[in-house]
Each structure stands twice: as structure tokens, then as C-alpha cells.
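Posted in: Structural Biology > Protein-Ligand Complexes

Title: Requesting predicted complex, protoporphyrin IX containing FE in pocket

I'd be grateful if someone could produce the C-alpha cells for the following input. Sequence and ligand are given below.
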Amino acid sequence: MGGLIPAAVLIADALSGQLGANPIQRATLQTGLLTLALLVLSLACTPLRLLTGWTWPARIRKALGLLAFGYGVLHFVIYLLDHSFDLTLMTEDVLKRPFITAGFTALLLLVPLALTSTPHAVKRLGFQRWTRLHQLAYVAVSLGALHYYWGVKKDHTPPLISAAVIATLFLIRFLKRRPTRPGTRAAKV
Ligand code: HEM
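-- Reply #1 --
Done. Output follows.
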């Protein structure tokens, strides 16, 4: 429930005209940053568990991932609103601007992950296939960081910091991953 507070604040600010001179741009930036931050947090859960042995990060990982997807959809809807829901314009933008291509692909990759986030889906796909599918989250977060880097006009320090955090999380996973033997369950994503 707490994860919906930023959305509530954004709606309240929009209704009371407190989003500044360019409310659409402000809302796009806020929801984009939230999407990326939540994606990074969801991917930080496993490295945190591997480093500390704590089990609680694994319990909140799914909620963080679903919230990231929800804010990503909101971010996209605001973008569409800014383009009067003109799908031709959107398609042109996706095909012509690498910045938008990266963001759009990242969001598309999150769709199968959100759809298979239920225990039923894990059972239906089998744990190994489900794990392999959910490795798409690494590609999505990397494309999200690239989209952020390309989207920023002046100071590239914040996107570079986010890329460094993501690279560190990948490295921890790589160094701490358990070797998988045939017939055993794969290391958790
Ligand atoms: C997982 C998917 C996505 C992530 C993580 C993401 C992340 C971000 C971030 C962090 C920003 C802020 C950049 C800044 O501070 O200047 C941003 C801005 C933006 N994003 Fe995304 N985004 C995603 C998907 C999309 C999609 C699907 C679209 C549209 C098709 C899109 C369009 C935009 C636009 C237009 C901006 C604003 C650029 C500006 O006005 O300066 N994003 N996004």
C-alpha cells in the first residue's frame, strides 16, 4: 500500500496545480524516476539476501517489481496523454528516437514478468523456465538506465550513478551465484 503514496501525491499535486509550469513533463520525470528506482530496488533484493542471509528482501521483491511495472505503465500513459493518444505518432517516436526505443522496449519486457508473477504461473512454467524468463528483468533495468542516460539533457551524473549501482548489483549476483548441478533447482533470480 505504501508504494501507492507517490502516485497519490502526484495526483494531488496535479489536481491542485502544483506541478509547475510544465505539469506533464514533471509527471513524466517523476514517474520515470520512480519506475527505475523500484526496478533497481527489486533487483537489489537477491544480492542483499546473498550478502546478509536476511530472508525479508525476497518477500518484498515481487511487490517492488509489480510496483515498478505499475509506475512504468503510468509513465507511458502520461507520455501518451502528452501525444494526444496518437498511436501513429508514438510508433514513429519509438522507431526514430533511440531514447524512446529503449524505454518502450524496457516496458515491453516487463509485461511477461508482471503476467507471470503469480505462484500459479511459476507452477505452470516450471521453476527453471520461470527463472530464465525473469532474467529479462536485468535487460529491462539496463535499458531503463540507458533510456535515462539518453533522456537527460545536462548533468549525466545521476544516470551514471544509477548505471554504477545496477552494475554493482549484477557483479554481486555473478560473484555470489551458486553453481547449479543437473537435476537441481537453478539459483534464484
Ligand atoms: C521500464 C521502462 C522505463 C523506465 C525505467 C523509464 C525511466 C525514465 C526516467 C528515469 C526518466 C527521467 C529522465 C530525466 O530525469 O530527465 C524518464 C523520462 C522520460 N521517459 Fe521514460 N522510462 C521507461 C519507459 C518509457 C516509455 C515506454 C516511454 C514512452 C514510450 C518513455 C518516455 C519518456 C519521456 C518522454 C521522458 C521525459 C523526457 C523529458 O521530458 O526530458 N519512458 N523515463
